[in-house]
Design a protein that fits this description.
Layout lengths: L2 H5 L3 H24 L6 H21 L1
Helix pairs in contact: 2-3
């Protein structure tokens, strides 16, 4: 998900996407602790997407 794609989304959609990504991050963390996470790079990728979403949301508030 690129910043341009995020900028085309509405604020409500961005907030829903943030909540969804945070849920998936929690799931990945649980899988990592249990030793069942097959793709550890997904944690980093999801964190970056959440950061992009939060950045665009903060830009709009200005």
């Amino acid at each position: 998900m690129t910043a341009d794609e995020i900028r085309q989304m509405k604020d409500d959609e961005i907030k829903k996407a943030i909540a969804e990504k945070k849920r998936s991050l929690l799931s990945y963390r649980i899988q990592r602790v249990n030793g069942r996470l097959e793709h550890p790079h997904l944690v980093k990728t999801e964190k970056r997407i959440v950061a992009r979403l939060n950045t665009v949301l903060a830009e709009r508030k200005k």
